[in-house]
Design a protein that fits this description.
The protein has about 700 residues and is of the alpha+beta class. Among the domains are: about 90 residues; about 260 residues, Rossmann fold (3-Layer(aba) Sandwich). The strands form 9 sheets. An 8-stranded mixed sheet has the order 33-34-36-35-37-38-39-40, with helices on both faces. The longest helix is centred in the N-terminal third of the chain and has 19 residues.
Length: about 700
């Protein structure tokens, strides 16, 4: 690798002071010398961040092809992208991005054939494009439209209301909203919020005592009616939905990222009480729709790969539940009502399948898809005979289809065109064996002329957690790597949802090492099959995937040339002490439990960095407004890695400003970050990209 660093002097990293901070976990002393970096408001942390960014910018600036990559990425990104239309009252709504607009624009049509007009342009909400639309929902008759915005990437939302017919912005402004739906009932809606955080703790303090409120359009927030709270459980979350007929209010109670209790209230009864339909928190209960007093629920209770059941509100006892659509070999990901039918989206070996069922659960037909890929979004109304969905694959950008439910006919509604010849690119799915013999799928995407000579650059991506499934999808960003001879590899690790709840649980708590073993085995498979070698492999992942990269680069630093942990959970002993981190203990366990502490300490990326080890060239990425995985994780990891790195491979941290965990990031920042990430990766893999 000597030649790869020829243009770079040895890096002098910013000096990070070390303090005497030690915690005692069940008799085990654990030092935390960079604890001061957890204070996101201190001048000292700000000074360190500025110094680190200066070092990173100077290093990246010396990469000879960085600007050319940025230009190519801008060109690849610059194609129109459409969102799936949805229908309320007489109106249709959809989003569109002309190409490199920072935020997609929301359009409205009076009918499907009418001329679309701009309804809400978030690009007008901030000059730098860092204010984004979060969730939004039109009222049942379409007369009002409530929408939430997020500023600078934070998970905190503010909700506003528009009068649809006139486009007039009303006086409503709701604050301190986080992870909330908008559930309309009449001239108001239900939503969830927290109390106002203490001064300076907006982006880091623990979120506790979430409550559900009802807001009437036009009222100030202080008049909102408290509908549901639990004073005994500060670390539980409460969300509200209403049925499409607005007859029932649904409350979902959670204490982690999976599993919920379900309560239902009949809104037609003036003093109706909440009825518990299902206990938490072992299983998921998602209400799909209702037919009068009968609820159609998707659940993994009694079916690890999910099924549909029917529950009578008047007789909700579990022994009275009726199975509507039984569990199949494929995973039932979601279901949608439409045209009096139920459209069920399944996943088979991490690709989408879809079937239409009669309301009684009998199969009508399969929804035929153009190729192996992913149904990303699906929009339907119970009374409508047509639905809309988006579909993409590794080589095809998202295409919007209009689907006639009864006749099983799909037609292209919006198709994206971009400056890229997909005919040169192939994708394949392979299966490999992990350390304990488990069969794991992996997708490979590359140019058709790639030779199996053991010398191809590989970008290995994974996640492996929280029941999240990685499925085929198009990325303009990764095409710049693929068109230069790189192989994109995406492994479907345990901890995800690709094969249902059993697959998820096999990668949680005291079985989390399975996830890392699966990822390491993916790299070993690619080497064995002559796709690549250890000097040509970059590993990448974000959030829980950042933890994955951190754990694997500390366990097998010899196996990878480049590591790209993004917004990662790196301190496994303290993650639950910040913002919403307490909700992750169902997947990770907690250092408050002695057995789980010892397991967490065994793989926590921060605590397993060792002096005298040559770690891969590493670019840590985070953002100053990330209030989900607070940037302290990345700060402490980067400072420790810079201290312990024993060779000249660079250890850099890129800290984005006015950005968060990822959602709502403006296109301009996405392109800048992608250019830096690909420049760093290609340079350290010894690639010399030919930029078109």
């Amino acid at each position: 690798m000597t030649n790869a660093f020829a243009q770079h002097d040895k890096i002098t990293y910013p000096k990070a002071k070390k303090t005497e901070v030690t915690d005692d976990y069940f008799g085990t002393k654990v030092a935390d010398p960079y604890r001061w970096l957890e204070d996101d408001n201190s001048a000292e942390t700000a000074k360190w961040v500025k110094a680190e960014n200066k070092v990173t910018d100077a290093w990246l600036e010396k990469i000879p092809f960085r600007q050319e990559l940025r230009s190519r990425l801008t060109k690849l990104w610059n194609y129109p992208r459409y969102g799936v239309p949805f229908h309320k009252g007489k109106y249709y709504f959809f989003t569109k991005n002309n190409g490199i607009q920072n935020q997609s624009v929301l359009y409205i049509q009076d009918s499907l054939n009418a001329e679309p007009r701009v309804f809400l342009d978030p690009n007008q909400l901030s000059p730098d494009g860092t204010t984004a639309l979060s969730t939004y929902k039109a009222s049942r008759d379409g007369s009002y439209f409530a929408y939430a915005i997020a500023k600078a990437g934070s998970d905190w939302n503010e909700i506003y209301v528009i009068e649809t017919a006139t486009g007039k912005q009303l006086s409503d402004k709701l604050e301190w909203v986080k992870f909330s739906d908008i559930a309309w009932k009449g001239k108001g809606f239900y939503y969830s919020r927290y109390g106002k955080p203490g001064e300076g703790g907006e982006l880091s303090s623990k979120n506790e005592f979430k409550k559900v409120y009802y807001h009437i359009v036009g009222d100030p927030q202080e008049k909102d009616q408290l509908v549901y709270e639990n004073k005994n459980e500060p670390l539980r979350s409460y969300g509200a939905q209403t049925t499409s007929d607005e007859n029932f209010l649904l409350i979902f109670e959670t204490e982690s990222t999976s599993g919920n209790a379900l309560f239902v209230k009949d809104l037609r009864k003036e003093n109706g009480e909440f009825v518990k339909i299902a206990d938490g928190f072992q299983y998921d209960y998602e209400v799909i729709t209702n037919y009068n007093n009968h609820f159609i629920i998707r659940t993994n209770d009694g079916a690890p790969r999910y099924r549909l059941i029917s529950v009578d509100f008047e007789n909700p006892a579990k022994d009275s539940w009726k199975e509507l659509v039984p569990e199949k070999d494929e995973v039932l990901q979601s279901a949608y009502p439409g045209g009096g039918m139920l459209i069920c989206k399944y996943m088979k070996d991490a690709t989408s399948k879809a079937y239409v069922y009669h309301a009684d659960g009998s199969l009508l037909h399969e929804l035929l898809l153009p190729e192996p890929g992913t149904i990303n979004d699906f929009e339907s109304e119970r009374e409508d005979g047509q639905a809309f969905f988006s579909f993409s694959s590794f080589t095809s950008p998202s295409t919007i289809y209009k689907f006639d439910i009864a006749s099983n006919r799909s037609e292209i509604f919006h198709k994206s065109e971009l400056d890229f010849d997909a005919s040169e690119i192939v994708s394949e799915q392979v299966f490999y064996t992990s350390k304990d013999g488990t069969r794991v799928p992996m997708f490979l995407v590359h140019r058709s002329d790639v030779q199996l000579d053991g010398n191809n650059p590989v970008f290995l991506y994974g996640y492996g957690g929280f029941n999240v499934s990685l499925t085929p999808g198009f990325s303009a960003s990764r095409m710049v790597f693929i068109e230069n001879g790189g192989i994109f590899a995406m492994a479907n690790l345990r901890g995800g949802g690709e094969y249902g709840e059993e697959w998820h649980r096999a990668g949680t708590k005291l079985q989390k090492q399975n996830v890392f073993d699966d990822f390491i085995a993916a790299a070993e498979y690619l080497i064995e099959k002559k796709y690549t070698n250890p000097k040509k492999i970059a590993i990448a992942g974000g959030s829980n995937g950042g933890l994955l990269v951190g754990a694997c680069m500390t366990q097998r630093p010899d196996l990878f040339a480049v590591a790209l942990p993004a917004v990662g959970v790196m301190d496994m002993l303290r993650f639950h002490k910040f913002t919403i981190g307490w909700a992750w203990t169902d997947d990770y366990g907690s250092s408050d439990n002695e057995e789980e502490f010892r397991y967490l300490l065994g793989y926590s990326p921060l605590h397993n960095l060792k002096t005298g080890t040559c770690y891969p060239a590493t670019l840590v990425t985070t953002a100053d407004h990330d209030d989900r995985v607070v940037p302290a994780h990345s700060f402490k990891f980067a400072a420790t890695l810079q201290e312990k790195q024993s060779c000249e491979k660079p250890v850099l941290i890129r800290i984005e400003t006015k950005a968060g965990h990822g959602a709502g990031k403006p296109i301009s920042k996405m392109i800048e970050e992608a250019a830096d990430m690909w420049s760093f990766t290609m340079y350290n893999l010894g690639m010399k990209p030919m930029v078109r």
